[in-house]
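Notes from the 1:1 (GR / supervisor)

We went over the backlog. Supervisor wanted to see one worked example end to end before approving the batch request, so GR pasted a single chain during the call. The sequence is below; no edits were made to it. Supervisor asked that the structure be written out right there so they could see what the output format looks like.
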Amino acid sequence: MNSMNDRSPPDPAGSGSARSLAVEAVQRVTNLFRKEMDLARAEFDAALKSAAAGIGLLVAAVVLALTALNVLSAAVVAGLANLGIAPGWAALIVGLVLAGVTLGLAMRGVSDLKQVKLMPERVSRNVKADAETIREGFNG
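Structure output shown during the call:
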C-alpha cells in the first residue's frame, strides 16, 4: 500500500535538465529559423538580380520604341512634305527595323521575367520539413 507520505519530492536536477533541454530546443529552433531566413534572403537576392536583367531589357525596348516612333513620325512628315518616295521610304524602313528590334527585346525581357520565381522554393521546402520534424519531436 502506497500512501501519500511514501512519495519522494521531485528531483530538482531532473527539472533542471528538462528546463535546460527546453532552452536548448528553443535555441536550436531559433538558430534554424535564422538560417532559413538567411537562405530566403539569398534566394530572393538571386531572383531580384535575374528580374533586374529582364527589366533592363524592357527599358532598352522602351527607349528603342520611342526612337522608332520618332523615326516613323519623321517618315510620315518627310513623305508628306516631299511627296517623294526616297526620303520617306528610307525613314519608314529604318523605323520598321527599329520597331522589329524593339519587339524582339520586349519579348525577350518578358520571357526572362516569367522565368523568375520570387518565392524561395528551397526555404519553403526546408521550413515544411523543419515543421514536420518539430511536430514529430513533440508527438513522439
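Supervisor's comment: The helical segments are 12-82, 85-115, 121-139.
Batch request approved.
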